[in-house]
Amino acid sequence: MEESRRSSGKCQKISGGEQNMTSVDRLSSLPDEVICHILSFLPTKLSVATSVLGRRWRFLWVHVPCLNFSRNDFPDETEDSDISEDDFTGQTKYSDIIHRVILLHEAKRMDTFMLDFMDCNEYHLETWINFAIKRNVRNLYLDMDLPMGIFPPRLLFTCQTVVDMRIYRCVEIRSSLYIHLPSLKKLYLYDADFENDEALPHLLSGCPLLEKLTMSVHLTEKEKYLGCINVSSPTLKTLEIDLLHIFEDDIPDYRILINAQALRHLRMVNCHLGCVTNLANMTSLAEASIRVEGPFYLFVDIGSNSNVVKFLDSLCNVKCLRMTSYGAEEVFEIGFAGSIAKFGNLTKLELELSDEWHLLADLLEVADNLQLLIFGEGEFDMVRYLLKNSRLLEKMEILPLDDKSVPNNLSEGNNLKMAFDALERISLFERGSTVCQLAFYSGERAAMASNSRNWSSS
Questions:
Q1: Is the pTM higher than 0.85?
Q2: Which residues contact 457 (CB under 8 A, 6 or more apart)?
């Protein structure tokens, strides 16, 4: 970095008829610090490759504050070779390349360290992570398939500077492990191993500033699942839980406990809603997304219906609610049938249901301030249901989502044709209101039609 910068300002004039084009090397005139910042947005493979551009570029990459190692950058691992501009061409083992790059790296601080790798030994793993932590790493992403019994070093859980940590598969959380992550605000755990039910609360207690927690837990073996998912944090604002289980006859006996007074965003995927046994103080919750798929019995059983009702009641303060279900709509039906809660703050409702559209009626009765209703698959069935059962409806406006796959010069004509086709189809639906008008908007233009015929309501 001490090498003097050479702002060559080389220009080349290119004659083209009456026009002269001048090509200026503006990149070389930039300070080293700016170039390193630009290189930080590239994968490390490309950052190192810039060393062949000239003498000044030869070692600029060693000062880039971001290292991004991806298994996709290495097609094969063959025989070893000396490190050179061919470092990232598959001529050496992946682990050796990473190790050499780290040994040559001279940045005093580390903004991002990403390691997406399949195979390494314990020594390499500890060396790489210690390297990042000693340089005050802020964003740490690990995605590794480690041999049995090998886990990241304990120093990982006492990093003073990490703000965003994402760990895929390669970590074991123990209740006896000392955990102190004073700066951590975002934590993503994918298929982590938990020693016992106390391990997760123990982990969260060591993260005093945590604002976002995302967990993806694979429940494939009953011996390995987390029996109690206990999320307790006074600072948590966003919680995302995704449970993936593969059981044909039953589901594991687990519980979900949530105690997060500051929680504003909740997302739950494939969670057994009957197992949500405690939702303490959810008055701050503003947005919730609930997705259930598969056979109905996976999500509700006899004796757990009251838990489903309590869970849906806890969402009564949300402003935005998204509910998705394919094959388990009865979960929501049971919950709202037994609920007495009013969704007075709800202004946006998004539904994706394969059946049971009458559930919408239950929601509309308790959501007096609803402004926006969005639905996806089966949209014509939804429109049919609304028209038939809305006896006081005066006007229905339909705004399709933009089709970004259609070129701009073709989208307007196609969308207008689709609007008329859809409107023609919908206009034949039975209506409960004799004064209802239909409006189908497509971009800035609208195809509008109304039918003054009297429609019978049954």
A1: no
A2: 388, 391, 430, 431, 432
